[in-house]
Amino acid sequence: MIRLDAEPLSVGRARRFCSATLLGWGVATEVIETCVLLVSELATNAVLHARTPFTVTIEGRAVLRVEVHDDDPRLPHARDYGPEASSGRGLHLVEALAQSSGTVTHSTGGKSVWFELAWDPEMAG
User: Fold this and answer.
1) Rounded to 10 degrees, what is the CA torsion of 121, 40, 15, 65?
2) Does position 78 have pLDDT exceeding 80, yes or no?
């Protein structure tokens, strides 16, 4: 787990944390690339929309699960912008590339946005 501030530099830190963690676990390169892309989108959403410090947690069992938790109780929603827009595609990417994804609200405040990717730890090398 890593806790990050709501600033643009934190998005890169979240990507590096995921990459280093998954490399250490021996996860396949294509899974790492997808995970880094998706965590980048969720971390960017936390910085731009939640504007609160956030944490990134990675767990690996039968699937690889990544959660981004922030203190903003507002739930994210996918937006449809035109093809020239520079934002608005993050949740669409998560939905398209992840095995599953969702949002969990916390009674203590805030929410976690999560995704899961297929991963076989037995195949890690």
Assistant:
1) -20
2) no
